[in-house]
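So, is this right?
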Amino acid sequence: MPLVDPLSDIADPEVKQLVDFFNETLGFCPNSVLTMQRRPNIARAFIELNKAVMENHGQLNSEFKRLIAFISSNTAGCRYCQAHTIRAAERYGASPKRLENIWDFQNQDCFSDAEKAALQFAQEASMAPVNVAKNTEKQLHQFWSDDDIVEIMGVIALFGYLNRWNDVMATSLEDDAKKSGKDLLQNISWNPGKHN
């Protein structure tokens, strides 16, 4: 049961307009945003941050950013965000092989060395306490520009906020996200847990 129930409707017209971003990404407005809507300034600021972080300017694309978000959420243990990020990665064109093997990215040939370096960084940066190895930083710089690293870190930090928000709030998973979690995360024995 959620700590605070999401509102069933978005009252703020500016937030309502911004929600189109999530309809493209997920196919629905997340319950987390509907809960933030109780304080429209939080919802607006969050949506704007999300849009800024998920814009693509360098080598990263929308699919890979969602896979970074999955690794970050998987490391943090947020089942709500695991379901959302794997769904978004699929919607942005991740192949079945990448979706099925993201949890074991280091041992999979469907991820490039550059992607493995970014995903390893995402995993280590999402631990509590943070534990980024010097070798991981070195590999990251080998494959990615400083500007790209800022985008990667933006995704990790954004999902640090979301992982904490949704885990503490026990945000209820939407039916489509729950289905994506069950269908796409069988390899990690995913279940909705408290987000049911």
